[in-house]
Amino acid sequence: GENVEQHPSTLSVQEGDSAVIKCTYSDSASNYFPWYKQELGKRPQLIIDIRSNVGEKKDQRIAVTLNKTAKHFSLHITETQPEDSAVYFCAATPDFDSNYQLIWGAGTKLIIKP
Amino acid sequence: KAGVTQTPRYLIKTRGQQVTLSCSPISGHRSVSWYQQTPGQGLQFLFEYFSETQRNKGNFPGRFSGRQFSNSRSEMNVSTLELGDSALYLCASSWQGDTGELFFGEGSRLTVL
């Protein structure tokens, strides 16, 4: 089955710098890769996702890149701000069928230092 | 539109008791999934229901069970509670359960004494 590894577990960056979180997956059939952000005491929320027919997707200061050959995808946050401090989770899932299930990474705690 | 609603938000139980948590998905969503989250831990998948059928189950003991009703509302039950069951239980709903956005509720925080 699918396995998703996420690194690093904790990332501390200076405000204004960039942050990169990387996830690797094992199932080459996976074709959907979302990223969720969970602020302290709040529910996880989708911030960006990418499908396997696309190599990169951007939304303002955040972007996700996908390398299908190497089976990894990364979240990039530029010009980090205090409100970016949160735990970020990646996930992957193969083609939808009756056994749909997202496989989650363990999470990365992002700390933005003022 | 209304978001995902979970009840109760907080509850305290003692070891050996059982608990039932409820989740009302966004109107029109047919998939409901449940997660356990402990401090410093990620999202541990419990199970997912779609149109009243359990489609997937995570690696949790049989003490954890769930069901989904015809109106897509879902409940999860934990019997014979253990101290290690203390956690935030999150449910999430989605349109069909396929590759698409999950909408999480605020969670039910269970404390087992």
Strand composition percent of chain B: over 45%
Number of helices of chain B: 0
Distance between the termini of chain A: 41 Å
Helix proportion range of chain B: under 10%
- What structural class should be given to the helix and strand makeup of chain A? mainly beta
How many E-type strands of chain B?
11
Largest interface: A-B, 23 and 19 residues
Outline type of chain B: globular
Helical amount of chain A: under 10%
Could you list the spans of chain B in which at least 5 consecutive residues all have pLDDT below 50?
A: none
Task: Indicate the radius of gyration of chain B in whole angstroms.
Answer: 13 Å
Mean pLDDT reading of chain A: 92
Q: What's the helix count of chain A?
A: 0
The coarse overall form of chain A would be globular
- How would you state the average pLDDT of chain B, rounded? 93
Fold and architecture overview:
The complex is a heterodimer of chains A (114) and B (113). In chain A, the strands form 2 sheets. In chain A, strands 2, 4, 5, 9, 10 and 11 form a 6-stranded mixed sheet that branches. Chain A has 114 residues and is mainly beta. Chain A has strands at 4-7, 10-14, 19-25, 30-38, 45-51, 56-59, 62-67, 72-77, 86-94, 103-104, 108-113. Chain A has no helices and 11 strands. Chain B is an all-beta fold. Chain B has strands at 5-7, 10-13, 19-24, 31-37, 44-50, 53-57, 64-68, 74-78, 87-94, 103-104, 108-112. In chain B, strands 2, 4, 5, 6, 9, 10 and 11 form a 7-stranded mixed sheet that branches. In chain B, strands 1-3-8-7 form a 4-stranded antiparallel sheet, with no helix packed on it. The radius of gyration of chain B is 13 Å and the shape is globular. Chain B starts with a strand and ends with a strand. The chains are: A mainly beta (114), B mainly beta (113). Chain A binds chain B through residues 31-32, 34, 36, 42-46, 49, 51, 89, 93, 96, 98-102, 104-107, and chain B through 41-43, 45, 48, 50, 55-56, 90, 92, 97-99, 101-102, 104-107.
